[in-house]
Amino acid sequence: MKDQPSPLRETDDDARKLARVLLRSARHAAIAVLAPETGFPFASRVLVATDIDGIPVILVSQLSAHTKALARDPRASLLTGEPGKGDPLAYPRLTTQCLAEPIEHSNPFYARIRTRFLARHPKAKLYIDFPDFLFFRLKPEQASLNGGFGRAYQLDGNDLVIQSAANEEIAARATETVRDLVERHPDVEESLATRLKAPESGSWRICGVDSSGFDMISGDSLLRYEFETLAVDADHICSNISKIAYSIP
Known about the structure:
Layout: H1 13-24, E1 28-34, E2 41-50, E3 56-61, H2 65-72, E4 75-80, E5 93-103, H3 110-120, E6 133-146, E7 152-156, H4 167-184, H5 188-195, E8 205-210, E9 213-218, E10 221-226, H6 234-246
Antiparallel strand pairs: 1-2, 1-4, 2-3, 3-6, 4-5, 5-6, 6-7, 8-9, 9-10
Helix pairs in contact: 4-6, 5-6
């Protein structure tokens, strides 16, 4: 018998960009863990945000089954990508295999993660500080991208992580960066929504920045934009965003 051709395509920059957008634009995802009592896969739904390095973050109750499973075995699989009209299998989706790291209140990253999570999920303010809730960072180990029929790719975990020495500096100034940008250009968010052809779901606001891009939110809709090159500092982020908003098409 002849060897069957591989269903996988060679992973290129377009595939990596699509995978990053599918992961970083997700407001929720399906998570699969291993049930400690039986070893069977257990799937649930979680809210998702991203840390400054692009690593997905979830907020979960310690009473939930998937939290107990992660405490016993940190391996998890995250499915992101939204279907639209018609065949749901015709739309891109990403399965990311991760290792979960709990982020307790005492962790130096906790305040940053809390701020970024609430910017994407403001309604979580009702329970985010309950004593039985905690964050997990889900560090990607590898990922499988299905970009639609006949477009399958295998990715390394590092393809999904923002590798920048400026991460910490940008994180420290993220809120200030967005505030100063909007004060200088009051119409910047409206201009971005128009230029990026955002759905007409109400007013849009920038809810997160990092060296790789920025996020905008309107109600339950989220839009992720990836820069062509990594920003080296907060001023570079403002410059990139301004060019996108106001450059001649």
